[in-house]
Design a protein that fits this description.
homodimer, alpha/beta, Rossmann fold, 16 strands, DNA-binding
Chain lengths: ~350, ~350
Amino acid sequence: MELSVKHFTLCEVNSMKQKENAPTMKDVAREASVALGTVSKVFNNLHVGEDYRRRVEEAAKRLGYQVNSYARGLKTNRTYSVALILPDVTNPFFSTLAQGICSALSQKGYRTILSTTAYDPEAEQRCIQMVQQNKVDGIIGLTYNPALEVDPQLPYVSIDRYFSPSVPCVSSDNFGGGQLAAGKLLELGCTRPLFLRIGSKVPGESDKRGDGFESACRQRGISCTSLRLCDEEGYAPFQDFLASHIEEGRLAFDGIFCVTDALAVHIRAMLCELGLRVPEDVQLIGFDGIRRFAEDGFICSTIIQPIERIAETGVELLLREDRSNLPSLVCLPVSYAPGGTTKE
Amino acid sequence: MELSVKHFTLCEVNSMKQKENAPTMKDVAREASVALGTVSKVFNNLHVGEDYRRRVEEAAKRLGYQVNSYARGLKTNRTYSVALILPDVTNPFFSTLAQGICSALSQKGYRTILSTTAYDPEAEQRCIQMVQQNKVDGIIGLTYNPALEVDPQLPYVSIDRYFSPSVPCVSSDNFGGGQLAAGKLLELGCTRPLFLRIGSKVPGESDKRGDGFESACRQRGISCTSLRLCDEEGYAPFQDFLASHIEEGRLAFDGIFCVTDALAVHIRAMLCELGLRVPEDVQLIGFDGIRRFAEDGFICSTIIQPIERIAETGVELLLREDRSNLPSLVCLPVSYAPGGTTKE
DNA sequence: CCGGCGATATGAAACGTTACATATGCTATG
DNA sequence: CATAGCATATGTAACGTTTCATATCGCCGG
């Protein structure tokens, strides 16, 4: 009886796909003339006599044996897989996050089950349902549904969205980032600041960027204008707003803080069309600082979110052994990076 | 004995995380006064008397029962999960692909296990190893390692990279896209075309873009220049090349085809710095046409890859029941979209 | 009224592991 | 030398499903 599973490189043609079952521990045990339990120990790195271990390892290699995670998971109730629930990996912020989380998890020996929800609260619930059936060891979610039902025994870490003290949330310091942007702009000589926002209808952590900005302006006795739009409205209102605030070729604002870099780039283009120079006439700061953006030639002065650290922190929190004293909110520090749309 | 598992919304504080085991089919069977096998049938939509079905369903709801995918997977050898192996989800092309594949899979009831390899051939092999242990039902891979060893019984679909006739590959028509770009440029009056490429050291499908471009030029009796760089060299050589080909304020080329949109945007910026106008002095066509790019204000004339269709096709091929007559290569048609860097 | 048939429910075996209680072989001790 | 004690291997019983052979039931024809 030949149980060995041959592997082929992708380049080799293999017409003969005969259906031989994958070898099991039982097969390895027989091949190595050893008890089943011993084989198990070897693959769990438990103490086993040196000669036994060698015999088992050789037999396993000969047969091409691989542990069956499903059998193991059934028995141990640990699957070494965690669910990552995101609205949309297409968004550079989310995809950078996904990258970080996925690799942090894999480094710790965990698999990532990716689900995307398209911002749909019901899809979010369906994802939760699905991954719970799939016995994941934990969930990292960037979700919006405030009524999400989750097995309370299952570790859950929320990114960028605070739910309750018992659900750890990690985000960057959005309020602080807003303050930082205001500070920079004023420091660089701006006296008529403007905050521009576009985003989801449901309020989220990123709203605090504007709050921080306004607060910092107020604190310095400077009044600040804000225009906050929802996705549905599109960019057009910004264009109108800017156009209507030009008098004698001069914009009513000389420093603009945009809620994201993507918005900043759009605004920059609008300003350009309106005959305004950046940063001479108007200075512009965005928010995100996604590396990929910059690599793709997409640069503006910005408040950098530490996405990698958010990812790492989320994973660390999720996998922490001692789950008794988890922080309910971890706010990671942001930083300023000039990118040509400010006078440094 | 209370077996019911209560779920909580994320917003509810739940201090009492008492450790009650999740209910099993056995519990449901007992609760419904029905045999184990009957419960199984209900959850597999097999024929069961109407009253029995109702009793089981009610009992299950009462207990909050959920199928344990691991036990099921162990028994059936089908896990309804597939592995998606990508170099890096941060790249907009890959993330759009991931989005499409993930949602196509979830629509068909499959989970996506995401692994990223950072273009490392050894990491690729480790991923394969890992997902095979995890008993996925198939693999969709965008990998570079030509010596990847894979269980030949496991369905594998390669994206954008051809390995052998027995491994289905789906990609967009890169050669045709190159031809299309050449045709457009020449049609729009260009007479001195240039092809610019930067990318991985290992050759891939996307090299055919340049081949198609050159071929189409040659076919029309027009000679074409090419500069092909590797990632390691960075963008600087392009800058030097362009600068050295300006004579009396006039560039030696009047139409440039870039291997990606990202490159096109960089080149555009360089041309701008060199005092050349786009599209008046030089016309520029990129390749990819990623929607997200455009949304982020990142626009150039381009050859659009049908990423969604690539994703759908890949999933369809992977999940196809009849695996006897799989195509070895599916080339999806690309299209041209003006974006301001050409005279339409 | 009985035997047989079709339909449907039942319960045990198996899937490939882990974990635990037991067996085995040694060494050290009185 | 007998044996307690230790270390290590063994084998079996779960884990929660599916599947299949068997049991049960109701119905119809003779």
